[in-house]
UniProtKB/TrEMBL annotation:
Pfam families associated with the record: ATP-synt_C
GO molecular function term, any single one: proton-transporting ATPase activity, rotational mechanism
GO-annotated cellular components: proton-transporting V-type ATPase, V0 domain; vacuolar membrane
Keyword field contains Lyase: no
InterPro entries attached to this UniProt entry: ATPase_proteolipid_c-like_dom, ATPase_proteolipid_csu, ATPase_proteolipid_su_C_euk, F/V-ATP_Csub_sf
Official protein name in the record: V-type proton ATPase proteolipid subunit
Residue ranges of domain V-ATPase proteolipid subunit C-like in the record: 60-119
Function statement: Proton-conducting pore forming subunit of the V0 complex of vacuolar(H+)-ATPase (V-ATPase), a multisubunit enzyme composed of a peripheral complex (V1) that hydrolyzes ATP and a membrane integral complex (V0) that translocates protons. V-ATPase is responsible for acidifying and maintaining the pH of intracellular compartments.
Subunit field text: V-ATPase is a heteromultimeric enzyme composed of a peripheral catalytic V1 complex (components A to H) attached to an integral membrane V0 proton pore complex (components: a, c, c', c'', d, e, f and VOA1). The decameric c-ring forms the proton-conducting pore, and is composed of eight proteolipid subunits c, one subunit c' and one subunit c''.
Record field: transmembrane: 20-44, 56-81, 93-121
UniProt keyword Transmembrane helix present: yes
Keywords: Hydrogen ion transport, Ion transport, Membrane, Transmembrane, Transmembrane helix, Transport, Vacuole
Location in or out of the cell: Membrane; Vacuole membrane
Length: 132
């Protein structure tokens, strides 16, 4: 009986460890949505009733930048996460390599946010009234 309890405790610990390891892909995919939220909050603070046309186009470009980079990063995280979880369940030492590749995939989304913030900070320079 004592041996069975020890086995059950060890098995439940392994299951918890694997669940936390494999949920990393889902957590990193959710970070991409936070990047879009940051860009949209910055954009919503700059919206005025009379806004220059170049400001509107810069905001459009910033949104497209975050969206496309987030989509590319999401695809990369999905593909790497699928292959990495399958491989690291068979050979646990591949987990660290999977995490490194996931970080590189996440950086794609971060680059989109950086470009978006650069575009949004430039959009307030030299605001002129649009007369169209």
């Amino acid at each position: 009986m004592m041996m069975q309890n020890t086995y059950d405790e060890m098995n439940s610990t392994l299951v918890k460890q694997w669940l936390t390891h494999f949920s990393l892909c889902a957590i990193m995919a959710q970070i991409l949505s936070i990047y879009g939220l940051v860009a949209s909050v910055i954009m919503s603070n700059n919206i005025k009733e009379k806004m220059a046309i170049h400001t509107a186009f810069l905001q459009l470009g910033a949104g497209i930048s975050v969206g496309l980079c987030g989509m590319a990063a999401g695809f990369a995280i999905g593909i790497v996460g699928d292959a990495g979880v399958r491989a690291s369940s068979q050979q646990p030492r591949l987990y660290i390599g999977m995490v490194l590749i996931l970080i590189f995939a996440e950086v794609l989304g971060l680059y989109g946010v950086i470009v978006s913030i650069l575009m949004l900070t430039r959009s307030t320079d030299g605001v002129t009234e649009c007369r169209y």
